[in-house]
Write a structure and sequence with these properties.
The protein has helices spanning about 1-40, 60-75, 75-80, 100-105, 115-120, 130-140, 155-165, 195-205, 205-210, 245-255, 265-275, 310-315, 320-330; strands at about 120-125, 130, 215, 225. The protein is mainly alpha-helical. The N and C termini lie far apart (about 105 Å).
Length: about 325
């Protein structure tokens, strides 16, 4: 009889322990769920455009294979068209996706999410209606410091097909969120090359090197990390040579692994590192045919003449607010 009571008490103790464990687990689960919901509410609504991803690229029909080849040309431009290219030697060793990250699919990373939807379009720089082919060749001649790609070539048609496929769900004329630069507010002072050097040393040298020359792959036919200045980098006619574009790009994407929700650099650091990088030597492009209407030059376009009295130095590094205010008064 006594042994039965001991067994009953033991079972009751076990039951109490189990019940307490279940209650504890439930409370933990509820707490975790509340924390997760709070996290979701604290995050900004993400409605920006994103590319479909490389694993969605079709590869069955001849048309599909052209799209796939277009992606390969964007991701590994130098392998095909660089100094050791297997098709031609018309670019500097950088890849298109060194600037158009993830094959042009990433938000706020110079993506292609509005390209097919908005071209042909008027470009004030050339004062012409520009096609996608001409826009691609702008990149070859400026960002890749190379030669124009033959517009009748398989390679140009492949790049066009890839961009068209990326934008297949974007209505003509539509500009989705994340497909333009997230412009930073102008500072009240000029961007500092000296402070930018410190930002570069603390955040960028691991990938781009102390000398800013990047890192080649083991085959030496493309860059794992691109050069930021020097003979193999973008020339001074490229979009990234304007520090507002460079600052926006690094703020939302750099150092490697950063995304626009959780930037590592402050606005000031982004402006300053942009000033430092673009103060370094790089190839020069003849831009005498650009911006024939000097009154349409962007505020931070670094070469005169201008439709105002501000210096080239101020147009390159700022402060930009006095220029902006003067332009408003003259409108």
């Amino acid at each position: 009889m006594k042994s039965n009571w001991i067994l009953i008490i033991l079972l009751l103790v076990i039951a109490i322990v189990v019940i307490n464990g279940v209650v504890s687990m439930h409370k933990t689960s509820v707490t975790a769920e509340k924390k997760f919901q709070f996290y979701l509410q604290s995050e900004p609504a993400d409605t920006v455009w994103r590319g479909p991803g490389i694993y969605q690229i079709p590869y069955y029909t001849d048309s599909d294979k052209l799209i796939s080849y277009g992606y390969a040309l964007i991701a590994h431009t130098s392998v095909y068209l660089g100094p050791k290219g297997i098709v031609a030697h018309i670019s500097n060793g950088m890849n298109c996706q060194n600037c158009h990250l993830d094959g042009g699919m990433l938000p706020y990373a110079l993506n292609f999410g509005k390209t097919f939807a908005t071209y042909p379009q008027y470009k004030a720089r050339s004062n012409t209606i520009q096609t996608i082919y001409e826009r691609v060749n702008d990149c070859f001649e400026r960002s890749l410091n190379g030669k124009a790609l033959d517009t009748t070539s398989k390679e140009m048609h492949a790049i066009y097909a890839y961009i068209k496929w990326l934008d297949k769900d974007v209505p003509k004329g539509d500009v989705r969120g994340g497909t333009t630069d997230m412009k930073l507010q102008y500072m009240n002072v000029a961007a500092s090359v000296t402070k930018g050097r410190d930002v570069f040393i603390n955040n960028c040298v691991q990938c781009h090197g102390n000398d800013g020359q990047g890192k080649l792959n083991t085959d030496g036919n493309e860059y794992v990390y691109p050069p930021l200045w020097g003979d193999n980098s973008y020339n001074d006619g490229a979009g990234l040579y304007r520090i507002s574009t460079f600052a926006s790009f690094v703020k939302n994407n750099m150092p490697f692994g950063t995304d626009y929700h959780h930037p590592k650099l402050s606005d000031e650091e982004a402006w300053n590192v942009a000033a430092f990088v673009n103060s370094q030597p790089r190839p020069h492009k003849d831009q005498s045919n650009d911006w024939k209407n000097i009154f349409k030059k962007p505020i931070d376009f670094p070469f005169g003449p201008y439709g105002d009295s501000f210096s080239e130095t101020q147009h390159k590094y700022g402060p930009f607010l006095p220029i902006k205010n003067a332009q408003k008064q003259n409108q």
